[in-house]
């Protein structure tokens, strides 16, 4: 290996309420740490960009501890083993874990997962379709949302990573009607192509009126929280299920959005349940099989928004909050672009 330096993006200072700034992160070089007994050295190929990263920067109690000042930014990642002192791994193995926003990771082999890409498959799908993104859509709809035949399913953030998979699962489910919500006409066109029956732009002046027109809701897959959640609560069917997946509208907000329609959970005997996908690992194999069957039937495809080089991580995270991504967002650290990375509807 000729390169001896490891480029890393570390947390420099915690952002106050609101978006990350130019001084939130800094880039540094460090020596590549050589693997000790039982350890492997991984060259990272893809790092994930996720809305939840904004929450990891706050010094508050959450489902994971905050990223510490000076630490490499936490991120799920895919890479290849370049040196191994663990007999379970050899050079060239594809591996997945939380390697972070950096070019190399060194650590115990027992802490990471080996991944195999099936013949004709794409490595990048370990970051999206068959990774936590696909599992979030699957667990959300079936475990939390108890999706049933004939449900009217409403999905917010529908053209994003989780949303695009959830939309296609619901479209493929027998007799379901799917209303997909996103923030631009280009995204609505994309969602129509994915089979959504109704598409709504939440930035339109008459969005509230159009939302009412789509009718009452059996399942609401909530990726955004805030005002759209409140509207959905206002038009629940009896025994509706609200999948509290995320609340991206709140992550950078200065203050919370009031929820006026909370009592409908009582009067409509409905359930709103939050979940963290990591708690459902026992269902991942089943989920991957379900999703790959849909792919084989031509009912599901996954799109990726790919930027190149570690220097793009911070800007790409910022862009996500402005809706610039279609599908799952990743940063590729590979030297060459692959065909699979260039695809977009
Ligand atoms: N519970 C879990 O285990 C779990 C796991 C993964 C993700 N999540 C959550 O799921 C949600 C979606 O995550 P993702 O990775 O799929 O992200 P994503 O949807 O790929 O990207 C975020 C999208 O949210 C939309 N958005 C940004 N600001 C918004 C606002 N103020 N109001 C409404 N929409 C806004 C943007 O699209 P538009 O152009 O449409 O605005 C943007 O493209 C997030 O809330 C995330 O935290 C939860």
Helix content: 10-25%
Series of H and E elements:
EEEHEEEEHEHEHEHEHEHHEHEHEH
Shape: globular
- Please, what is the CATH homologous superfamily of the largest domain? Medium-chain alcohol dehydrogenases, catalytic domain
Which small compounds were modeled alongside the protein? NADP nicotinamide-adenine-dinucleotide phosphate
Distance between the termini: 38 Å
Number of strands: 15
Helical/strand content category: alpha/beta
Please give the radius of gyration in angstroms.
21 Å
The CATH topology of the largest domain is what? Quinone Oxidoreductase, Chain A, domain 1
Give the rounded overall mean pLDDT: 95
Count of distinct structural domains: 2
CATH class of the largest domain: Alpha Beta
Q: Main sheet?
A: 7 strands, mixed
CATH second-level architecture of the largest domain: Alpha-Beta Complex
Strand content: 25-35%
Provide structural commentary.
The strands form three sheets. Strands 3, 4, 5, 6, 7, 14 and 15 form a seven-stranded mixed beta sheet that branches. Strands 10-9-8-11-12-13 form a six-stranded parallel beta sheet, with helices on both faces. The mean pLDDT is 95. Helix 3 links the parallel strand 8 and strand 9. The chain has eleven helices and 15 strands. With 345 residues, the chain is α/β, with parallel strands linked by helices. The protein is 25% helix and 25% strand. It has helices spanning 53-56, 132-144, 161-172, 185-193, 207-213, 226-233, 248-251, 264-267, 284-296, 313-320, 339-342; strands spanning 5-11, 25-31, 39-48, 77-84, 94-97, 104-108, 113-115, 152-155, 177-182, 198-201, 217-222, 236-244, 271-274, 304-308, 328-332. Helix 2 (132-144) crosses helix 3 and helix 2 packs across helix 9. The chain has two domains: 5-127 and 303-342, Quinone Oxidoreductase, Chain A, domain 1 (Alpha-Beta Complex), CATH 3.90.180; 132-279 and 289-293, Rossmann fold (3-Layer(aba) Sandwich).
């Amino acid at each position: 290996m000729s390169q001896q330096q490891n480029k890393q993006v570390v947390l420099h200072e915690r952002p106050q309420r609101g978006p990350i700034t130019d001084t939130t992160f800094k880039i540094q070089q460090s020596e590549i740490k050589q693997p000790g007994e039982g350890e492997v050295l991984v060259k990272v190929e893809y790092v994930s960009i996720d809305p939840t990263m904004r929450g990891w920067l706050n010094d508050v109690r959450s489902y994971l501890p905050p990223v510490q000042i000076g630490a490499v930014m936490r991120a799920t990642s895919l890479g290849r083993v370049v040196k191994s002192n663990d007999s379970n791994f050899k050079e060239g193995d594809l591996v997945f874990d939380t390697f972070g926003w950096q070019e190399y990771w060194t650590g115990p082999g027992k802490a990471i997962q080996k991944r195999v890409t099936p013949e004709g498959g794409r490595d990048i799908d370990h970051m999206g379709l068959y990774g936590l993104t696909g599992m979030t859509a699957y667990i959300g709809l079936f475990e939390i949302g108890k999706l049933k035949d004939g449900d009217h399913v409403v999905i917010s953030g529908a053209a994003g990573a989780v949303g695009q998979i959830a939309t296609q699962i619901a479209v493929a489910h027998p007799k379901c009607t799917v209303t997909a919500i996103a923030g631009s006409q280009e995204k609505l066109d994309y969602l129509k192509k994915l089979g959504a029956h109704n598409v709504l732009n939440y930035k339109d002046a008459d969005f509230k009126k159009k939302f009412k027109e789509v009718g009452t809701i059996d399942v609401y897959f909530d990726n955004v929280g805030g005002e759209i959640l409140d509207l959905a609560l206002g038009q629940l069917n009896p025994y509706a299920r609200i999948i509290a997946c995320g609340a991206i509208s709140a992550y950078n907000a200065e203050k919370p959005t009031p929820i006026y329609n909370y009592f409908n959970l009582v009067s409509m005997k409905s359930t709103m349940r939050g979940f963290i996908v990591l708690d459902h690992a026992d269902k991942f194999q089943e989920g991957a099989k379900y999703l790959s069957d849909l792919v084989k039937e031509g009912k599901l495809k996954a799109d990726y928004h790919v930027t190149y080089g570690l220097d793009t991580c911070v800007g790409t995270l910022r862009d996500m909050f402005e809706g610039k991504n279609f599908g799952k967002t990743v940063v590729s650290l590979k030297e060459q672009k692959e065909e699979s990375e260039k695809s977009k509807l």
